[in-house]
Structure formats: C-alpha cells, structure tokens
Design goal:
Elements (H helix, E strand, L loop, with lengths): L16 H19 L2 H8 L4 E7 L8 H4 L1 H8 L4 H18 L14 H25 L11 E5 L5 H9 L1 H4 L4 E6 L2 H15 L8 E6 L10 E7 L1 H8 L4 H15 E12 L2 H16 L2 E5 L25 E4 L5 H9 L6 E11 L12 E6 L4 E3 L3 E8 L2 E8 L11 E6 L15 E4 L1
Parallel strand pairs: 2-3, 2-5, 3-4, 5-6, 13-15
Antiparallel strand pairs: 1-14, 6-9, 7-9, 8-9, 10-12, 10-14, 11-12, 12-13
C-alpha cells in the first residue's frame, strides 16, 4: 500500500489529445450552461459585495535542487546499467498500466520486483515529491509533529512522505523524530530508507530514526504515535476490499485512532478523485465528532458542501480537491514523462490535517470577515468576470473577480474577505445554490 498519487497523473490507455479537448469542450459547455441563469447574471452585474483582506496560496513554488536532481540520487543508491536505463520509459509505462487499467492483473508483491520498484521510484516517487513538497511547504507548522515525536507513516512505500517532509520543512529537520514506516514491501522500505539517508546527508539537520515495519494497515506498532500520516493508502484499501464504503470507513477510522495518543495530529493525503475525496470527507466528520479541529484545508467546521457523495457514480455532487500545473516540475522529470508517453500537465490531490482542539488558539471573530478556500480553476462569467468555486461557512460559494485579476487566484488559495452587505442580502445561484461573493 504505497503512497501513490498517479490516479490523476496517468492517462488511461484510451486517453488522447482529442479526448482531452472533447473533455474541455464539455466542461466549457457546462460552465456556459451554468452562467446563463438570470439570477447569476444579475448577481454579477451588481457592485462588489466583499473586499479581499488577505490571500495565502496552498501550493507554494519551491526551489529544491535535490528534487530537481532526484534521478542522480537514486542512481547512486540503486544504480541501473545503460541497457536498463534505456528500458526505463517502457518499464514505467507498463507499470502505469498495472496501476490503472490493468490493476486486476497486478501481483500483490509487485513492489518487491527490482525493475518495477526502480521504475516506481524513478518516476512515481519523483512526481510525488514534487506534489507533496509544494503542499508541505505551505501548511502551518501546527499541522506537523513536535520535537521528540513518535511518527507513523502508513503505507510508506519508499518513504516518499518522510523524504518530502525532510526536503520541504527545514524546521522539522531541526527536530529529533522517530519514524515507524509501515508497508507490505520490505524492498520498497529498504530502498526508500537508503534514498532518504542519502538525501538527509546532503542537508543540515538532526538525523531522524527510521524503524521499518513490514505489514499491512492494522499491523501492531510498539509505540502509540504523536503524528500519523499516509498518502494514498486508503484509496488502495478501498479498491482491494469488498466491504461497503461506510463500514470500511468506520473500520479504518477506528484503526487510525487505535494507533494514536489522545493528542495525536493527523495528516492524510489521497488522490483528488471523487471516491478518495469522499473517504477523507467521511474521516473529517468522524474527526470533528471526536473533538478534533480540521486545521486544513477546511475554513469552517460545518457540514462539507463538497462531500463527493456518489460523485464517482456520476451524481452532481462536487468533491473537495486541489490542483496546480506542473510547468515548474524538474525538466528531466518532464522529459522522462514524455519518453514514457505519460506527459503530466496537472497535479491533483485531496487532504485533511486534523489536530486536537487544544492546538487551536481561539480569537475574537469579526462577523463580517469570512474565510474562503478556492476549490476549482477559474471559468468565464458574464460581464468580463471570472468565477471560482470556493468553500466557506456559507457552504458552496461562487467567487467572482474581474478577469484582469483572475491570474492572482489559484486552486487552494485561502482568502479572507470582508463582507460589505448583510448575509441575508447575498445572492445565490438558483441552479447550484452557491452564495455569490463578488470582489
């Protein structure tokens, strides 16, 4: 159960440029249909009903040379000869099929195969480091472990989450942490530890203690954890299991709590697809009932307006996910993707950070201030405006900005706005029910 985010990166065998264009046309049609309602047009013709006070990106651009040259580090730890390097793009493409459209034919212990593990690390792990480092560098320090913490990485694979944290969080490198890394593949754990130690030796900091544990989710861990994280593990569990989703989710949540102390922090990351996002939404509800605070990405603790309920079956329910373009990814990684015929344009993920209420400092709230989290790309609106879906205490929210300013807003941005009109005067779209916030 490795930390894989490939679901949004890997096109299926039938994917083509034509298919992408048709998909975009369909999305455009839906947007056009959405903005044609009279109530929406009237809402955007009005003057601004809110003022932007602050904005914080979810995905900061990071300049980490060790990520740019990750292939050289791997070659030093797990060398391939010239013939194997020539075969690498084909091996990557074959592995991607095993992870997607040929999943039913994949062996359970595929990560113990040397060539497949090498292909996975040199491609999927590299992309995961790009994705995770941008997320981790932007999150508040309260989302991460304290000094001398016992940490548990579930479905650790080649220690991708641990390595990404070391690279993206210089503050954590100054802390003494003990990591229990749990995975079914001992070879993957061993290779990941060698890579992590090679990277750690290149940056100043205290050495983290790595304890490899071979086993599946639920395997006994000697110590209760202060910090629990995982990436794409629950997506793997649900794909392999035959238990109804609600029962599976409760079972998995109970096991998470079983690994934890009363004040444990959780950071769970999954692919930004409907079913995985739905899993995290259900965990969110259970954490809140247990007295936890969802520190990120949620700007409120009310019912999730994008819970993804049955979204994967084609319903109209939206699901919570965030994306950024991969234009700033390492050039060598982009070329490897092209060679493997798996070019990447966007990275997409869903996540939650849950912390005990004691870690949250309560402050006096100005009722006119609202926090919004952008959860979509921009789309055209009437009157030279650009719209973004957002989440707020209002529920589903539609943010309208001038098209000239749209480039300053991105998926995942956290905005604080000051509402200029009474809440009762805010207009909503009759089709989606979204509250319209116009800056």
């Amino acid at each position: 159960m490795s930390d894989k985010f490939y679901s949004k990166f890997i096109p299926s065998a039938k994917t083509s440029k034509k298919g992408v264009k048709e998909s975009r046309k369909e999305t455009s049609k839906k947007s056009d249909s959405f903005i044609k309602s009279d109530s929406l047009k009237n809402g955007y013709k009005d003057n601004a009903n809110a003022q932007l006070m602050s904005s914080y990106p979810l995905f900061k651009k990071v300049d980490i040379k060790l990520i740019d040259n990750f292939d050289e580090i791997v070659q030093g730890v797990m060398p391939l000869n010239s013939r194997q390097l020539l075969q690498l793009p084909d091996n990557i493409r074959n592995l991607s099929h095993q992870m997607t459209d040929e999943r039913s034919t994949r062996r359970l212990g595929y990560m113990n195969d040397k060539l497949q593990l090498s292909a996975y690390i040199r491609y999927f792990t590299w992309w995961n480091l790009v994705r995770l480092s941008r997320l981790f560098s932007s999150l508040d320090e309260k989302c991460f472990p304290s000094d001398n913490a016992i940490c548990l990485d579930l479905g650790s694979g080649p220690l991708t989450v641990v390595t990404a944290l070391w690279l993206a969080r210089p503050d954590l490198r100054q802390k003494e942490l003990t990591w229990y890394c749990l995975d079914l593949s001992q070879n993957s754990l061993a290779g990941g530890e060698d890579i992590f130690l090679s990277i750690a030796a290149r940056l100043p900091g205290k050495t983290w203690k790595i304890i490899r544990v071979k086993g599946s989710f639920g395997t006994f861990i000697k110590q209760k954890a202060d910090f629990i994280t995982c990436a794409n593990m629950f997506n793997e569990i649900e794909q392999q299991g035959d238990m109804p989703p609600e029962y599976q989710n409760k079972k998995d949540f109970d096991q998470l709590i079983n690994y934890a102390k009363p004040d444990t922090k959780f950071l769970l990351i999954e692919p930004g697809v409907p079913k995985a996002a739905r899993t995290l939404t259900q965990f969110r509800e259970r954490f809140i009932k247990q007295g936890y605070h969802i520190y990120s990405p949620c700007p409120h603790s009310e019912a999730c307006p994008m819970n993804g309920f049955k979204a994967y079956t084609g319903s109209s329910h939206k699901w919570c996910n965030f994306a950024f373009t991969t234009t700033d990814a390492p050039k060598k990684l982009q070329q490897l993707s092209i060679n493997a015929k798996l070019p990447k344009e966007r990275a997409v993920l869903s996540f939650i950070s849950a912390v005990p209420e004691d870690f949250v400092v309560s402050t006096k709230i100005d009722s006119s201030l609202k926090t919004l989290r952008i959860v979509s790309d921009g789309f055209n609106l009437p009157y030279h405006r650009t719209g973004f879906y957002a989440c707020s205490s209002f529920g589903l929210t539609l943010l309208s900005v001038s098209s000239e300013e749209a480039q300053n807003y991105n998926s995942g941005d956290l905005l604080e706005v000051k509402i200029k009109t009474p809440d009762s005067a805010l207009k909503t779209d009759e089709k989606s029910g979204a509250v319209i916030i116009r800056l």
